[in-house]
Design brief:
With about 70 residues, the chain is mostly helical. It is about 75% helix and about 0% strand.
């Protein structure tokens, strides 16, 4: 999942918080989008990868703005 996050977002998140941020984002996606999340347990389609990339980056964009990073 980390590969789907824009590098500029990862650079803004302190190293000691990244694991927590990625873990909680994965939990949120599993809860809100279970079908899409389950597709990533196997080999996801390109469409699923694009949707997941969009969702992850929107979540990180919101959280970065919220925490003034």
């Amino acid at each position: 999942m980390t590969a789907l996050v824009k590098p500029e977002y990862l650079k803004r998140i302190p190293v000691f918080i990244r694991k927590h941020a990625m873990g909680k984002t994965c939990q949120l996606l599993a809860r809100e989008f279970p079908d899409l999340y389950n597709e990533f347990k196997g080999e996801p389609s390109q469409d699923a990868v694009d949707k997941m990339r969009t969702l992850i980056n929107l979540i990180f964009e919101e959280r970065i703005a919220k925490h003034h990073m």
